[in-house]
Amino acid sequence: MISKSMISGLAMACAVLTSSTAWACDAAGKSTHIGSLMTVNAEQSTFTIQDAQSRSPITFTADKEIMEGLKGASGSVMVNYMEEGDTLKAVGVTF
Asked: Does 22 have pLDDT greater than 80?
């Protein structure tokens, strides 16, 4: 299991050691973003993070199970996702 301090360390590594033009957080692996949870919109089944590497907001769609897990959440998250057209669909979220 990944601890919050490990996620924070990876986020810091992403921000310091990698280029801000890369799409996913390189240190975390392919199809993975690490950042701070900004908003959760249960009505639209979306949530937004501020990416640790690019410092840009990134919005993901998510299924009901992931959205339930995000209720009341805050702080750093690691999001595993898949691309569906122009949309990023979260397939896993770790706090």
From this structure: no
Name the CATH superfamily, with its identifier, for domain 4-94: Copper binding periplasmic protein CusF (2.40.50.320)
Q: Are 93 and 79 in contact (CB under 8 A)?
A: yes
Whether residue 9 has pLDDT greater than 70: no
Where are any strands of DSSP class E within the chain? 32-41, 46-51, 57-61, 76-84, 87-94
Domain boundaries, the chain: 4-94
1: tokens are 């299991």
> Residue 56 class from Cβ within 10 Å (0-12 exposed, 13-18 middle, 19+ buried)?
exposed
- What does pTM read for this prediction? 0.73
Which amino acid is it at 13? A
